[in-house]
Amino acid sequence: MKNIAVIGAGTMGNGIAHTFAQSGFKVQLIDISEVSLKKGMETISKNLDRMVAKEKINETDKNKTLANISTFTTIAEGVKLADLVVEAATENIDLKLNIFKQLEAACPSHTILATNTSSISITQIAAVTQRPEMVIGMHFMNPVPIMKLVEIIRGYNTSNEVTHTIMELSKTLGKVPVEVNDYPGFVANRILMPMLNESIEALYNGVAGVEEIDTVMKLGMAHPMGPLQLADFIGLDVCLSILNVMYDGFKNPKYAPCPLLVNMVQAGKLGIKSGEGFYDYSENRKAEKVSKQFLK
Description:
By secondary structure, the protein is α/β, with parallel strands linked by helices. It contains twelve helices and eight strands. The chain has two domains: 3-181, NAD(P)-binding Rossmann-like Domain (Rossmann fold, 3-Layer(aba) Sandwich), CATH 3.40.50; 189-291, N-(1-d-carboxylethyl)-l-norvaline Dehydrogenase, domain 2 (Orthogonal Bundle). An eight-stranded mixed β-sheet has the order 3-2-1-4-5-6-7-8, with helices on both faces. α1 crosses α2 (34-53), α8 (188-204) packs across α10 and α8 (188-204) crosses α11.
């Protein structure tokens, strides 16, 4: 594989593009928004600058990585030469199905189609294409350039050859691929999201405050980041979407999103991306507890 198309220039998309480009692949970063593409490239450049400052790479490495990335605003143009497409758009089933229909029409016949979805069925996504055996999940962790794990999710029809190819490809990126089967939430989020949701329930029920809950989990369970801070980092809207997918898939009350989470998302308090979630990130202020109005 030489050409990797990445769809979506947001947090996950630009991280995936960065990772492939740094490993020597030619990357076509695709987003319908020029603003998002510009912001994504700026993020990649800043992250590379940090790596230079830490002496993990040199200036030449940085420039080679950036030179490996080209940007496009249409799928048709961006995937013409793609050996692999990694879709990293918003965690919305209708959006992803629409993208994969476009990929089926625009990609060369040999192109493997991967999705970075964190919870949505690979089998369902593959069903809108004429190549379900070539559709697979590549669930990278955030921040992509740093985190080692990649969940490799086989759909019902994903071939052994495609699975092997993507497992080996992930290793060339310096990642540790783990093969899992196609169930809602896969492994990572099937375990993580109920824990985050239960932490939000504890806050909602008045068991303890934001900082107290996070401190218990950091000091008592050796977690590097408290669950409420982690939810802010992931994005509360993303957490809500994943929980809804699992609740719809399993019909089990334990996956039902906490009302506090639902209210915060509806109020636009999404975590770091919006400047406020369980903590306040605006104007470089120190973390503060979420406003009491969302606890009602």
